[in-house]
Amino acid sequence: MSDASTHSIVLPHGLAFPLDGRNRGVPFDAAWIEGLRINQSAVERRTATLPARRSVKKDAQAAWLLKAVTCIDLTTLNGDDTEGRVRRLCAKARRPIRGDLLQALGFDPDSIATGAVCVYHRFVAAAVDALRGTDIAVAAVSTGFPAGLNPHPLKLKEIEASVAAGASEIDIVVTREHILTGNWRALYDEVREFRAACGAAHVKAILATGDIRTLTNVAKASMVCMMAGADFIKTSTGKEGVNATLDVSLVMVRMIREFRERTGMRVGFKPAGGVSTAKSVLAYQVLMKEELGRPWLEPSLLRIGASSLLADIERQLEHHVTGRYSAFNRHPVA
């Protein structure tokens, strides 16, 4: 997966850097993984500073929130999902912020859209149809989401079916057992096969950080998934008892930074589950800006798995425009 091609350049250490920006993966390196250690108290001290930021206010805050909207993977992953609900969600993804608010902020009503819509495989075709003519991606959760305990051949078939139906991004669930038992080679091989099944579709590897116990496990699992070719690493399914937190996010973005320093390849980050308020998303944006730099504020490298977050951002933008807060139920997601 790390072989050079006509669509790559060769870095001084011999690895191939793809010109299309994708992560092609690198050979498995057990020594690199075993050398990773995380100081939990240092992580907690660092993340405690993020929500205290007060520098993003007024017009600047509105701009950051609009940028956050473009990075949202607008999501519905419920047992009672219907095609009608998915199509309404896609309509909201096309125009996530009310036109009058965008005009008051100096934007064309059609200039802001979400990064993607994320659904189960059953609704991929409906979402593709509803988003036809836009640049909004359709992401499908796969590989036995959320538990990831389906037989491996069925996981590969599910990926292939979603890609055939038109999904351009696949959110795969890794096998937690590989992480909990330290079987890093098995995790690498699994994700490499998932990536091969995805073909041209981008791979977002879900670590389920609330289930894998330690920050060191989070670091090692992040690095293994990137070695295997994941285009994004994602915190959670949203179904665990604990989902995205700033602590696990800091560890994951530090691994992204180390991977880029060693390979030259950029990998994206997706917090999912629990990022439900404008205040919380600003903390994640500050984290990305400070740890990885300006490119990681764009949807090509940052996605936020959310649904109710959009309603709160719209509510905050209305307050910015009018000086008044409206009821949350006046800003439905779909």
TrEMBL record:
Organism: Trinickia soli
Lineage: Bacteria, Pseudomonadati, Pseudomonadota, Betaproteobacteria, Burkholderiales
Family the entry assigns: Belongs to the DeoC/FbaB aldolase family. DeoC type 2 subfamily.
Keyword Iron: no
Record keywords: Lyase, Schiff base
The enzyme's E.C. designation: 4.1.2.4
Keyword Lyase: yes
Name under which the protein is recorded: Deoxyribose-phosphate aldolase
Enzyme class: lyase
Pfam assignment, any one: DeoC
Coiled coil residues, start to end: none
Pathway field: Carbohydrate degradation; 2-deoxy-D-ribose 1-phosphate degradation; D-glyceraldehyde 3-phosphate and acetaldehyde from 2-deoxy-alpha-D-ribose 1-phosphate: step 2/2
GO BP term, pick one: carbohydrate catabolic process
Reaction(s) catalysed by this chain's protein: 2-deoxy-D-ribose 5-phosphate = D-glyceraldehyde 3-phosphate + acetaldehyde
InterPro entries linked: Aldolase_TIM (IPR013785), DeoC (IPR011343), DeoC/FbaB/LacD_aldolase (IPR002915)
Molecular function GO terms recorded: deoxyribose-phosphate aldolase activity
Recorded GO CC terms: cytoplasm
